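ASSEMBLY PREDICTION REQUEST
Request ID: AP-0331
Submitted by: J.K., bench scientist
Number of chains: two
Total residues: 474
Priority: normal
Notes: Please return the full assembly, not individual chains.
Input sequences:
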Amino acid sequence: MKWRGRIIKGALIAAGVVLLGLIQAGFFDRLKIMNCKPELVLCFVAILAVRAHSLRAGLTGFLAGLYIDIVYGRYVGIYALLYLVFCVIVSLSLRRLTDKYKWAGLPLLPPLFLLYEMGESLLVRFVAVYVAGGGPLYHYPYAEHFRVRILPGAAYNLAVAVLFYLILLLVVLIRRPKPAIRYRRDKDIVIDNA
Amino acid sequence: MTRKRKIVIFILILLTVAAAALVVISTSSDRLDGFFRALGTPVRAIQRGITKLGDNWGKKASVRREYDAVQEEIERLTRENEELRQKEREFNQIKAENEELRRLLEMRDRTEGYELLQAAVITRDVTDWFNEFTIDLGTRDGVVNGTVVITSYGLVGIVYNAGSSSAKVRCIIDEQSELMCRIQRNDELLRVRGTSNENFTAGLKADRIAKTAALYVGDVIVTANSGGVYPPGIVVGVVTEVGVDEDGNRFATVSSDVNFTSLTTVTVMVPKTAAEPDNK
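STATUS: Completed
Returned structure:
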């Protein structure tokens, strides 16, 4: 039963990743703001990572990134690596907070997405320069790059992630277990979630 | 540290190393390209439908907001404007020839020996870091790696990863694209490269310009026969700026008339010998 539940959950996440990838490639070229479009798949796996154990979060991020690399990317592995690291960081920094206080994770999302955008920029530029056989990592001042590309990208991703976050909270609240009676070691009867 | 925690850390490190290894392998060789292309084929087939849906949705949305007529007018005026600019350039360069006839003649010369196939853009770069897109033609239609892609406004790019029913196209404005070109006015050779897309500023830059070559703003840059990849004479762009870098070498900024961000259909130049459908 436990495995069956895991398989169904995994299949649902995989379907969500594929669907969001399709939507992103099909529709979001028309929904750019300041030249940026959100990475729906990243936002999805990041929000899942908020409530997942770091191993599961990392594995989900790795597979989702690999999917992006294989279907849409030029070099395989870039987004697998980025999503893996990002999801592990999100899981490590937000999971326990979110378990205790439902909204506590929100203020931490902006710096995390900013960090992701900077990491993505750095890795992609590094690969581009490596493949080209050398050259400057950034042709423009980094401050300008930060203003033009990193900040709007992080903001757009953040907006979508917050939306996903709210949906996740809603799902968690709906699926909240009903009060159940259980025994503690001291044999007192306690009621959870009362 | 518990044993379970150690195992988790070990697996995460293993995944990170695997991802990094994939990056290194895919950037240094194309041995795994075929395998990954085959993996992505089913999703690309669905993507084709979704992208069409997206295109239709975009069009319907604009109809609803009564922008369609305005958009058409803008498009018509843009084309008209481009034609006028083109006519002006041609007039300045070759006064004796009629512009319309010349374009037709040039088109016939350029495309001789090629089958021109219309292709729809089914996937654009989802991350906006690489200037590339996927078209709905593949090896079954005669498209192979190295096939040239154009529009009526000029050169678009080259196929670098051809699958059986789809192919990835690298735009000429991509940082990794470089091609030998000529100044149309005096046939002088120069190299045109794509520029970095780090600030959404991908464009074209010309270098390796001979010291004796006369190059001015407004000069039309066309492909050269050098290398045999691109057919000669296809318009690449117009020089918008000429300058000198720190080393004292001349460079030029080239502006293409192709709007790379809103391509929906392109023309693929398949050599006539390869245009026969591959039934294998």
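REVIEWER COMMENTS: Chain B is about 35% helix and 25% strand.
SIGN-OFF: pending second reviewer
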